[in-house]
Sequence to fold (378 residues):
Amino acid sequence: MATQLFVPNFRVDECLEGIRECLEKGWTGLGFKTVEMEEAWKTYTGLPHAHFLSSNTVGLHLAFHMMKTKYGWDDDAEVITTALTFVSTNHAIIQAELTPVFADVDQYLCLDPVDVERKITDKTKAIIFVGLGGNVGQYEKVLKLCKDRDIKVVLDAAHMAGTRVDGKHVGHDADVTVFSFQAVKNLATADSGMICFRDKEDDERARKLAWLGINKDTFARTASQGAYKWKYDVEELGFKYHGNSIMAAIGLVSLKYLDRDNAYRRQLADWYLEALEGETLIEPVLVSPGCESSRHLFQVRVAKRDEVLMAMNEHEIYPGVHYRDNTEYRLYSSGAGKCPAAHKASNELISLPMHMGVTKNDVEFIVETLKKVVRTGL
Fold:
């Protein structure tokens, strides 16, 4: 039987119950379920504000657009970012007509604070920190660099639903944090996300901008039952980025089981580490001290990665790669050669299967197969 990288675990009956409620009420868009999801997420994370969106990607663009217009940044304003991420992280910077500046990664595959400091210029207005795989890396050091220089912090927490440090959920100390509830994330829907601003005024503006700049959303106008519910103002140019109640209904179910599922992911990671102990040809990517990771990923580094992947596929094991060095893409080629550690990791990384259907026996088979493959020298 084939072992896939990701297989989401939907509690189907509970999801259908929530979706049925939306259909029976005749309200599937922005509305009662998205409000419920926002309240549940704030309770779960302890974050003061949360707005449910159609994806993490739109949230990142919204964050940069709002910061640029709020603070009056010029088009040549720089955002320090990582080359080892999904392209939406860096697309969002360009879409907001800002300039991405690539800093290298550390042993945790997160931004290296030493290289971040080297890359800071007078034009640096923000930094985006990607918690790859749910890891916080050296976030605290990067955060201090930013606070000391009044640089804004965007936390791309696409992989970090359920990641905690010292018992506290991530996101409380960034200017804005954006989560992903995409189809194979730990908190899975079909696609959606959450944007969490630290300041109330930013949250209020985000709600308008995510609904085309309209100052009252359809649900608010309908719920008020006012005689002039069709009247509203458009205060500034916005986007159609809001989430919907169908996705929220699925998300509410996934959230109920998030801590339980993440605990199992951490158990899988422990089994992987135990099985890999003493193996010199396979280097696991470790979680930074003090981080209780969501463990969206379990990554290892090997030589001849592409050949190893093909050999694993022959045994019906289908790992993945997170991610290709973005500066290898034509769009970001101006950053080529500036992040050697990220480039090296990009050619060595394998993400091993991580989902609720993977058992301890599966882990042992995967690791034994991987050991045999790398020892052959290909």
